[in-house]
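Predict both folds.
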Amino acid sequence: MKERMFTLRGWELTGESSEKPTNVLGLLWNKEEDTLYVNVDSLLSMDLSNITKRVILSAAHPIGIVSSFTIVPKLLLQELWETGLTWDDEVAEDTRMRFNQWMAEVPLISEIKVPRWVSGANVPDDKWSLHIFSDASKAAYAAAVFLRVEHESEVTVQLLAARSRVAPTSKTKAGMTIPRLELLAASIATRLYKTVAEDFKLFDVKTVFWTDATTVLAWIRKNEPWNTFVMNRVKEIRLLYKGCQWQHVPGELNPADLPSRGSSMKKLIQSRWWEGPQWAIHNSCSGRQCRFKKQTHT
């Protein structure tokens, strides 16, 4: 740091006992537990006496770990665009009630804590693998990146990044079928992979893309004269994933399903979605086939 003329102003270490968490890139870091969680202070301090489009927009938090919850105000905002309301017009009573119900669960966001260090010490790269999932519904489409690490005594799966987007408005939905939305989800999955691989330097790690849309798999794998919409996105996907595997996952086992539909915070916490699908811990996939073990619940 001295060579680069950086002035050292402070140094914080994992394991330090401190009542005050440290701000780290929009998250809060609990140094004693070495965990990260979302800072909801700005949301809790919002003035809810007059609910407008501007207020709802300010509640749309970008942090991916809670994307299945924060997609809800984005969906409300999309509905409001079609009403013709200005940014500062008060919304209808029905929308106000739905937004207030959503805000009532905001304090629960801070209950989600994820480990800052997702790998562990002395784990060789060949024990790592990236698993990128995509899914879509009529309301939204989403992608999520998980890191699977095979330790000596256990296998861990941890969320690295997630992204969700609302589906096009009703004016354009006529030609936007579910397969096309699934293709949009696959395209943001490859973009998210590129971002994660660059940031974490994981281009040499085994990577598998997962979708429950067989139509999308056919579009990606086959060289056919698809229409312009499909072909443009297939070209982008093929360019970005550069030969990584694309495989099918049953819809009920696809973790990207939750952020593609939206959920309450209670449902999100119960799912422990950020820890990845349990089947990814027990299944080791190779080639183009993957057998899914039946999950049992106790």
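Second protein follows, with its predicted structure tokens after the sequence.
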Amino acid sequence: MAKEDAKKKKTKATKVAKKVTKVAPRGKNKKKTIKKYSRHEKDTGSPEVQIAILSEKIKDLAKHLETHPKDEHSRRGLILMVGRRRKHLNYLSRKDKEKYQEVIDKLKLRK
């Protein structure tokens, strides 16, 4: 009996309630973004779509970091996402200048 009581006390003491917040676009937002920037119905991998999805994630994560400035792990994720988006933009600018300019204008990435 003493062991069971000790186990119960230990599990109660070690459990910590964590508040989980979603920072990436999920479900409808992501589907809308894909639909808006896709080349055809089932297109999810074109550079335009990937750039748009990353831009949405970056906006959401930046908003999260405004309210949680000490969240260094999310900050690193943000930096990695920005780099990934930059690589997709560079690729698109090499392959199709018109699409590149169109994506830049739609997402308002440049002034």
